[in-house]
Design a protein that fits this description.
- The structure is a homodimer.
- Chain A is mainly beta.
- Chain A has one domain: Nucleoside Triphosphate Pyrophosphohydrolase, CATH 3.90.79.10.
- The first copy, chain A, has 2 helices and 11 strands, in the order ββββαβββββαββ.
- In chain A, strands 1, 2, 3, 4, 6, 7, 9, 10 and 11 form a 9-stranded mixed β-sheet that branches. A two-stranded antiparallel ribbon of chain A has the order 5-8.
- In chain A, a hairpin with a 2-residue loop joins β1 (about 1-10) and β2 (about 15-20).
- The termini of chain A are far apart.
- The interface between A and B is medium-sized, with 31 and 31 residues.
Chain lengths: ~150, ~150
């Protein structure tokens, strides 16, 4: 099963996002876990590879299950672990193979094109400090079929 | 990839643990995630199935990657998500197919036989409120080969 880790850096009212070429949608920078990594090791490595930035003390903000359906059949399932981070070091790379990295003012996030489920994740994670748990079902064309979200009580 | 969720209930200075028949080792009650579940949905369902107790507001305390090696070859990898919980309802089942459920005084935990990595997880989770991230490598006979643990800064 594929497992993805990613991280929302918040710096001076801006978030670092990745505009992906295929649909022009914005996504949270990150990537696939490698064998034997913890989720935290993975997010630090992936973030550095994609952005050249080293994140400090990323904290897990959400854990999500994704199910992809073609007609009524499950074709793919993966998990995503989303961290949040306010301190980092390094200089943002000029070139990212995955798309274009952009600092976006927090108040503009909701105007950006993105996967519908990602929008719901942003809504929660930027407004709450509690962990978010969720499950999303999408079509192969990334149309959101249904979702469940649950935040911890603390 | 197999994914396991489990939960440490703390009630009046006691933890509910499962003594498994094979080695007589104590483990945290829980079980395998099912397709489409979030990790929180999984832990509530698994805990109810194994103990007949309904846990309230479980909070994620740790996320772990396990790699099992035979000689120098990786033969199995899975993930475990460990929650902690202080409130629940229901009456503990008289019969659990997986082993014997026992309330153990917290101060006796470290005397119990258990997987070496689980002991390290207990040491951290009972002493800290921060999230624990880790990766463990075991032999097929559950001898701990190496591990890395990292807790969040908060």
């Amino acid at each position: 099963m594929q497992r993805v880790t990613n991280c929302i850096i918040i710096d001076n009212g801006h978030l670092l996002l990745l505009k992906k070429p295929r649909r022009g949608w914005y996504a949270i920078p990150g990537g696939k876990m490698e064998q034997g990594e913890s989720i935290k090791e993975s997010v630090v490595r992936e973030y550095r590879e994609e952005t050249a930035l080293t994140i400090h003390d990323p904290e897990l903000a959400g854990a999500f299950t994704f199910s992809i359906y073609e007609n009524d059949s499950l074709v793919h399932e993966w998990m995503m672990f989303t961290f949040i981070c306010k301190t980092y070091e390094g200089t943002l790379t000029d070139y990212c193979a995955e798309g274009v990295l952009k600092w976006i003012p927090v108040e503009h996030i909701h105007d950006l094109p993105m996967a519908e489920g990602d929008r719901k994740i942003f809504e929660h994670v930027l407004a709450n400090k509690s962990m978010l748990y969720g499950s999303f079902s999408y079509t192969e064309d990334f149309e959101l079929l249904n979702f469940r979200l649950d935040s911890s009580a603390s």
